[in-house]
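Final report, closing paragraph on structural work. Over the funding period we assembled a curated collection of sequence-structure pairs, and we close with a single example.
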Amino acid sequence: MDSKWTGRESRWLTRLRDHLRNLYLGATPTAFRFQFAVVAIDLVIIAFFIATPVLRETPSFLWLDYAVAAIVAADLGARLLASNDPWRLMRQPTSWVDLFILVTLLLPATLANLGFLRILRLWSLSRSGALWRHFGRGAMREWRDVSHAVINLLTFLLVVTGFVYTFFFRSDSGIAGYVNALYFTVATVTTTGFGDLVLPGIAGKLTSIVTMLVGISLFVRLAQAIFRPFKVYFPCPECGLQRHEPDAVHCKACGHLLKIPDEGD
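Its predicted structure, as stored:
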């Protein structure tokens, strides 16, 4: 009897994994609609993370927080089931980010000061295979690096804004404090330095220095992504080099013969 139930559970789990694998990794119209829905839900969750400083004092905040935790946990669990190598998936930085976000959602009061790091979900989304499997084709491939650079910069701005709000502008209630933190961050990253808002003490000076240095580096990275020559993504079967000129016949790293498909293929 036990072996019969075990066999049924094993078959049910296998069917579930196959179904999830088709949804998360497939290229069918149904899979595309599912992946598009996942991306849309991710964007709504990110919007919730950005609005958290304003929503934190509302009566419904904890309900929203735990609902988002349930969605993040379900998505992470489904991805693990769909993966051919769950342990490899868990070793990826995007999975670490999701786990950290899940912990902050489950312990919103204890880890309130780390809540600003939830916006790293935006960076995690930009590395999502589902996002680029369909939207990274054709002419969009040319803008993939630019998109990554823009998202990196935006994520940095929002993380620093959350940090500055949490540790320096928390006394200002609601939206006013968050806008002040965002204003300070943008003024610092762009090195405008109006001086009407400054962070007090040594910690404030160090925060400003780090913000300027990293922000300038991200701006340079964005400029490089915009102005450098366009290359296509096509992993070399021999050495794994992923970026090549559109008309490349051989891999410039190892000389292996490439068969890069045309835009219409």
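The chain has three domains: 1-135, 137-230, 231-265. Strands lie at 232-233, 243-244. We thank the funder for supporting this effort.
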